[in-house]
């Protein structure tokens, strides 16, 4: 295959039955009985997720706005880029990303583009994430958004891209959206350039929305 022909394609195998043994506040666990190519039926358990957005905010000095936050499942404080859930079905992902950047970093951006779209763990979860590139940053006036729980302990920093790349390759930075976002940024810069990235309202089949 060449670069112009290798791409993921939609496909849906027959489901003979489905159950939802667990429902949480934001996600649930589903069990589908899926018909395999040989005609057999196998159960597949996976987390049902509303989807997320993340923002790689790049300032005029080539630094990325990052946040350090405690993540209980992995028992670590991780450096991440601003991110959040698509809380409302059909929500415009750009609007959600702008909200997250404001709430977590009290920053706004004038230039928005789609950096990349990913499935975080497609073997066990249907979460889809759209990672945006935000440029031409400025501070937002007024009172800061009131945070709670883990977010009350967040730390903010602006880190040069090269330092983040070194941290990723050294195995010192692990957050999925940060790793994918930073390496995608470098690839875009070394390729056709950031101005050729998809527009912020580009279609997203994994999570359709109205512009």
TrEMBL record:
Q: Which residues form the Nudix hydrolase domain?
A: 47-181
Is Hydrolase one of the keywords?
yes
Question: What Gene3D superfamilies does the annotation carry?
Answer: Nucleoside Triphosphate Pyrophosphohydrolase (3.90.79.10)
Query: The organism sits in which domain of life?
Result: Bacteria
Which controlled-vocabulary keywords does the entry list? Answer: Hydrolase
PROSITE patterns per the record? NUDIX (PS51462)
> What GO MF annotations does this protein's record show?
hydrolase activity
What is this protein called in UniProt? NUDIX hydrolase
What is the organism of origin for this protein?
Answer: Streptomyces marokkonensis
């Amino acid at each position: 295959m060449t670069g112009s022909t290798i791409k993921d394609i939609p496909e849906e195998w027959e489901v003979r039955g489905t159950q939802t043994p667990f429902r949480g506040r934001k996600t649930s666990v589903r069990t589908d009985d899926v018909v395999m190519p040989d005609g057999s039926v196998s159960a597949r358990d996976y987390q049902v997720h509303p989807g997320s957005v993340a923002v790689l905010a790049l300032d005029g000095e080539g630094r990325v706005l990052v946040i350090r936050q405690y993540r209980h499942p992995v028992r670590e404080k991780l450096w991440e880029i601003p991110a959040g859930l698509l809380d409302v079905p059909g929500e415009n992902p750009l609007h959600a990303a702008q909200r997250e950047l404001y709430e977590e970093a009290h920053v706004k951006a004038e230039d928005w583009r789609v950096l990349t779209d990913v499935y975080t763990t497609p073997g066990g979860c249907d979460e889809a994430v759209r990672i945006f590139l935000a440029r031409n940053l400025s501070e937002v006036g007024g009172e800061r958004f009131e945070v709670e729980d883990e977010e009350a302990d967040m730390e903010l920093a602006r880190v040069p891209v090269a330092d983040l790349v070194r941290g990723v390759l050294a195995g010192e930075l692990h957050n999925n959206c940060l790793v994918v976002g930073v390496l995608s940024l470098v690839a875009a810069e070394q390729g056709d350039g950031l101005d050729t990235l998809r527009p912020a309202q580009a279609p997203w089949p994994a999570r359709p929305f109205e512009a």
